[in-house]
Amino acid sequence: MSPAMYNRLWLAFLDTVQMVGISALIALVIGIPIAVFLVVSAPGGFFEAPRLNRAVAAVVNGFRATPFIVLLVALLPFTRFLTGTTIGVWAAIVPLSISATPFFARIAEVSLREVDKGLIEAAQAMGCRKWHIVRHVLLPEAFPGIVGGFTITVVTMIGASAMAGAVGAGGLGDMAIRYGYQRFDTTVMIAVIIVLIAMVTLVQFAGDYTVRRLRNR
Amino acid sequence: MAALTVETTAVPVHGAATEKVATATRVASAAGAGSVRFEKLGKIYRSAAGAVNALEDIDLEIPAGRVYGIIGRSGAGKSSLLRTINRLETPTSGRVLVDGQDIGRFDEDALVELRRRLGMIFQHFNLLSAKTVRENVALPLVVAGVPKKQIAERVDEVLALVGLEGKHNVYPSRLSGGQKQRVGIARALVHKPEILLCDEATSALDPETTLSILKLLKDINRSLGLTIILITHEMSVIREICENVLVLEQGRIAEEGPVWQVFGAPKHDATRALLRPLSRDLPEDIAARLQPQPVAGGEAVLELHYTGGESAGPDLSCLASALGTSVRLLHGTIDRIQGHAQGTLLVAARGVSESNLEALKGHVGSARILGHVASDV
């Protein structure tokens, strides 16, 4: 591989980190409130709202049912409306975060739902308001599970970001297709795969480590 | 004087109003607040399988400062009844009055205020695993908006009270069952409640730890003067610390009264069934040799039951004078509950007949001849 190619690989890596990083952050910030809402508004929750719950759940399922590559194309007008362009890193961040948010919300929801009902009862008995229960009971108790779920989300997003090359977003996936596949440069292909494996391993390790620390206290 | 009037009448800001309520509560608490009354309380659970009467026609007064026990088999409605006091459970009919106030009328703010006057502990402790002991105990004060410095002082105080100094920064998973329940008690006491609700608080603990927790509860009741209402399915817990007991059976009151009376002379089958684990059956070796008819040269075996209402308690000299000096103690238990000695004794005596039992009247709750044995048992 030529020094120019190394440089390209480095830039592609940065693109991927940027796309995944920003989208993951958006998924985190929007996904957790959705997850909390789905749990507390479910029948038997302490903020019961069955109709709204079903509506939100339906939207979440709708986005999850759509394959990312389809979503990427279907969202083009919306992406153009938000970012003014349909190519580049920012154009990829829109579909990437819209796809990752419901995915992450569902995983976080499972962790939140598993919080012992007795803890919620204890919180109510000591005079906690609904917001206190979310803030002091639900989120902290589900936190290890949420971190684990976020790790899975980020790994999935690294995979999905490869498809973002289809909208000219750049990144590692784009590089593997253009140089490795279309120009038959096997070395580049292998180099990209190694970088991707390293990224996923690192994310998974960091996530597992954090979860273990949280669970082990 | 004028300033005082202004202060007690003008409460423009909501926060200030809450403060006033809190102060008023503290004063009332010192004057012995902490009474609960149930009026015609009923609770029906409706499900696909049909309606279940969990509670029916509960009329009951629990005076302030008592240690009050509610006992019943599983599914008798104890847990539902306890939870109506802090409205974790809403009754279908009837009223619950805490310090004379109908809590069914409370809006969300008043309900939160009420719950801050009540503490509750649980069978499975319900401690937050993500928070340290200190943070767990502090939580009721944190959500009530108490200043940090006051919280720290109060947390130290209650942790010392329950005997957990030095465990401030430990996570609950590192504690034993007994220590966890002590944290639960500290958390329940941290906002100085008038009433402590105990939901099977010792059912998950071993016998030794159970005793230490019950002793702690007793001490707290004495030193802080707060009302303790506990539910359990173990009569031994009631015997250990309660003054009054309510026996629930299928959602209804089976019987109610001072513990020594209910234990000494149970009126309801449910009570007798719950007491059975505490009573001893006729020892097998005696049962095997028992004959219905008197045996020449043999002895009669008598069962003497003391309810605790006898003037002098189990009086041995009176036994000797009624049954003759050959009377021997075979087997039995006498417990002292609230100063009343009660229990069952099995004695053997020579040449005893029904007429001798007359002489025991007034000294023994009840006496009967179980049978006869040939010679020494």
TrEMBL record, chain A:
Membrane topology: Multi-pass membrane protein
Keyword annotations of the record: Cell membrane, Membrane, Transmembrane, Transmembrane helix, Transport
Major location category of this protein: membrane
Name of one Pfam family that matches: BPD_transp_1
InterPro entries named in the record: AA_ABC_Transporter_Permease, MetI-like, MetI-like_sf
PROSITE patterns tied to this protein: ABC_TM1
Compartment(s) where it occurs, according to its Swiss-Prot or TrEMBL record: Cell membrane
Stretches assigned to the ABC transmembrane type-1 domain: 13-205
GO process terms (BP): D-methionine transmembrane transport
Record has Iron as a keyword: no
Ion transport keyword on record: no
A GO cellular component annotation in the UniProt record: plasma membrane
Protein name: D-methionine transport system permease protein
Organism placement in taxonomy: Bacteria, Pseudomonadati, Pseudomonadota, Alphaproteobacteria, Hyphomicrobiales
From TrEMBL, chain B:
GO molecular function: ATP binding; ATP hydrolysis activity
GO BP: amino acid transport
Source superkingdom: Bacteria
Record keywords, A-Z: Amino-acid transport, ATP-binding, Cell membrane, Membrane, Nucleotide-binding, Translocase, Transport
Pfam families linked to this entry: ABC_tran, NIL
Any Gene Ontology CC annotation: plasma membrane
Residue ranges constituting the ABC transporter domain according to the UniProt record: 36-275
Family per similarity comment: Belongs to the ABC transporter superfamily.
Function: Part of the ABC transporter FtsEX involved in cellular division. Important for assembly or stability of the septal ring.
Record's protein name: Cell division ATP-binding protein FtsE
Organism: Shinella granuli
